[in-house]
């Protein structure tokens, strides 16, 4: 059962930007770190980024470092992944995960 709400995906040109959101209505969400993953059909799920519960530490997969920015607004029970300088190989379904909760995924398609 999907327990996180995701938004922000879509079609974007290479070099463009999108901001993904991951939210949960319960305030207990704010005490957990949140991890972003992505999946390409036929490939394994891969790590994209993670942010700790306070929001002062983020971790990035090498290809996203310098292009993606993780932040969170715990007053809104929401985590954001700002994605810049898109490349066609960033096309994937992006998921967020926290504690035992997970989101339904949001499609990001990058056109060249």
What report would you give on this structure?
With 112 residues, this protein is an all-beta fold. 0% of the residues lie in helices and 49% in strands. The chain has no helices and eleven strands. The strands form two sheets. Strands 2, 4, 5, 6, 9, 10 and 11 form a seven-stranded mixed beta sheet that branches. Strands 1-3-8-7 form a four-stranded antiparallel beta sheet, with no helix packed on it. It starts with a strand and ends with a strand.
What keywords describe this structure?
0% helix; 112 residues; mainly beta; single chain; 4-stranded antiparallel sheet; 49% strand; globular; 7-stranded mixed sheet
Radius of gyration: 13 Å
Reading the helices and strands in chain order gives: EEEEEEEEEEE
Low-confidence stretches: none
End-to-end gap: 35 Å
What is the overall pLDDT average? 94
Main sheet characteristics: 7 strands, mixed
Q: Given the C-alpha coordinates, what overall shape results?
A: globular
Q: What would you call the structural class? A: mainly beta
Strand residues, percent: over 45%
Give a quick summary of the entry.
With 112 residues, the chain is mainly beta. It has no helices and eleven strands.
Fold topology:
Layout: E1 5-7, E2 10-13, E3 18-23, E4 34-39, E5 46-51, E6 58-60, E7 68-73, E8 78-83, E9 92-98, E10 101-102, E11 106-111
Parallel strand pairs: 2-11
Antiparallel strand pairs: 1-3, 3-8, 4-5, 4-9, 5-6, 7-8, 9-10, 9-11
């Amino acid at each position: 059962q999907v327990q996180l709400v995701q938004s922000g995906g879509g079609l974007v040109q290479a070099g463009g930007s999108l901001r993904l959101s991951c939210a949960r209505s319960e305030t207990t969400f704010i005490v957990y770190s949140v991890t972003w993953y992505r999946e390409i059909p036929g490939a394994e799920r891969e790590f994209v980024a993670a942010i700790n519960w306070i929001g002062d530490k983020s971790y990035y997969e090498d290809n996203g470092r310098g292009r993606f920015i993780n932040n969170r607004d715990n007053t809104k029970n929401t985590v954001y992944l700002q994605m810049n300088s898109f490349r066609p190989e960033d096309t994937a379904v992006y998921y967020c995960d926290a504690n035992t909760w997970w989101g339904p995924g949001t499609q990001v398609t990058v056109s060249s």
